[in-house]
Structure to design on (322 residues):
């Protein structure tokens, strides 16, 4: 019996450093932009990942344009710039993309006017307000454990036009109920998601719940589909291509450590994809992949391996010119 293409096994990813010299050169020549995730890729909870600063220098030395694309809006823009400085580099504000940036870009693109209810961290709230939007948040104080007392507080019937959900380490059942009521009582109220990570990698051995589950709850409760403005959303891919004038998606390499967010996003956007194993994925996870939409084109141990690859290619070119 023949097996249809949809049932066939996905093509396995290639180990970057195991490529032959010609293939390494071909790979290096195949992209102009390097879009990289941050947490678990260029740094972790404890600081910069060894060798990444040097790898960034090597990439810039070959003319690559680096853009930092994260799902973490808990960090401020200033914090991102400081983290990049620790790697020995400076970064333009326009080259740091995270959900609050893409949410604000989207709201401006549709000329959004109206009240917003946001489940998110303080830096996200501050950025929305600084952009000129009126934003409701909370309740932040503990509520009585009785719906008859909670509902009169949160069912305020205010004309909320958008509910935005992102990381909120103080998220509560009450906040989700409030969001649900706005969405159910106003059919025109939008549901917008920033980060949709269902897990956060603390170490390679430990993952914890991510904000994607909040979005899942509201989608199921209201029958709405969220507009996703973090990875792996289509809208973010569209924004990036427009912002950087990317005419050929295959000339872009997306680097990440999470399969469901980073690799899936790269695939959605039509970019080349590279999975690094310093964060949320292990080699065993790569070997077990069966969904073609989640299989990276390449994988490697660390972002630092760019330095090794580029050095090898440049040394070979130097010898060939003698």
């Amino acid at each position: 019996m023949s097996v249809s293409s949809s049932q066939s096994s996905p093509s396995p990813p290639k180990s970057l450093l195991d490529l032959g010299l010609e293939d390494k050169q071909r790979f290096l020549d195949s992209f102009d932009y390097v879009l990289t995730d941050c947490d678990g890729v260029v740094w972790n909870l404890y600081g910069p990942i060894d060798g990444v600063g040097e790898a960034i220098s090597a990439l810039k030395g070959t003319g690559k344009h680096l853009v930092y694309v994260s799902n973490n809006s808990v960090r401020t823009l200033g914090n991102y710039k400081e983290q990049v400085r620790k790697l020995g580099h400076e970064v333009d504000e326009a080259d740091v993309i995270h959900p609050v940036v893409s949410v604000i870009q989207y709201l401006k693109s549709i000329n959004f006017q109206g009240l917003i209810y946001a489940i998110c961290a303080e830096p996200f709230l501050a950025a929305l307000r600084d952009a000129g939007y009126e934003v409701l948040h909370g309740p932040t104080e503990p509520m009585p454990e009785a719906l008859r007392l909670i509902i009169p507080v949160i069912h305020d019937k205010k004309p909320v036009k958008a509910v935005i959900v992102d990381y909120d380490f103080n998220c509560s059942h009450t906040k989700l109920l409030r969001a649900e009521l706005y969405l159910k009582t106003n059919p025109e109220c939008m549901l917008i998601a920033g980060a949709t990570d269902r897990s956060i990698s603390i170490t390679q051995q430990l993952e914890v719940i991510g904000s994607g589950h909040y979005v899942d709850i509201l989608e199921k409760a209201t029958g709405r589909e969220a507009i996703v403005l973090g990875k792996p959303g289509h809208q973010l891919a569209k924004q990036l291509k427009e912002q950087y004038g990317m005419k050929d998606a295959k000339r872009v390499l997306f680097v990440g450590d999470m399969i469901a967010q980073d690799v899936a996003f790269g695939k959605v956007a039509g970019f080349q994809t590279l999975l690094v194993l310093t964060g949320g994925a292990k080699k065993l996870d790569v070997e077990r992949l069966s969904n073609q939409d989640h299989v990276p084109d390449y994988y490697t141990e660390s972002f630092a391996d760019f330095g090794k690859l580029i050095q090898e290619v440049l040394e070979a070119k130097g010898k060939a010119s003698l």
